[in-house]
Amino acid sequence: MANIIMTVIGTDRSGLVDQLSATITDHGGNWLESRMSRLSGYFAGILRVSVPEEQLVSMEAALQHLTGDSLQLVIAHETSGVDEGPQKALHLEVLGPDHPGIVHDISHALATKNIGISSISTDCRDGAMSSERIFSADINISVPVDVSVESIRDELEDLANELMVDITMDDLEGSVVQI
């Protein structure tokens, strides 16, 4: 079996996921995992698919036939990744007044500690009691086991104060810390 990663972006329309999944299924493929969303009238997604080696080329060609002016598709062949060593999974929630640079500041603080972002979901909405825009983020991170959780907490505490946001860290084993 071959594994591929696909990114899809295009004008949102009914039946788009149905077309993708039918094409994959018609070629003996298996839809393994995906993240998809509607953003400002556009459909955006990333998915991982396994397909029999002998069907790979024909499936890719069939998927390319779905593209056009309103849909773009990029296919990458999965390779074995670099072993990053043992990792600990943590979850961060960020909430506070919106302003430019929040994602950059948080991602930079994590990158300086060699912490990878496994997934991130962000949103901006009007505040319930004011017209102020509120930023929120759910971030799953992979932390090398040699990086102490306390050092992450300290760094994020300083950053939360600087950005004027609340950050909550959860070790996914039941321990939640408000930073």
UniProtKB/TrEMBL annotation:
CDD domains documented for this protein: ACT_GcvR_2 (cd04869)
Alphabetized InterPro entries for the sequence: ACT-like_dom_sf (IPR045865), ACT_dom (IPR002912), GcvR (IPR016867), UPF0237/GcvR_regulator (IPR050990)
Domain ACT: 91-170
Pfam families xref list: ACT_6 (PF13740)
Transmembrane segments: none
Protein name: ACT domain-containing protein
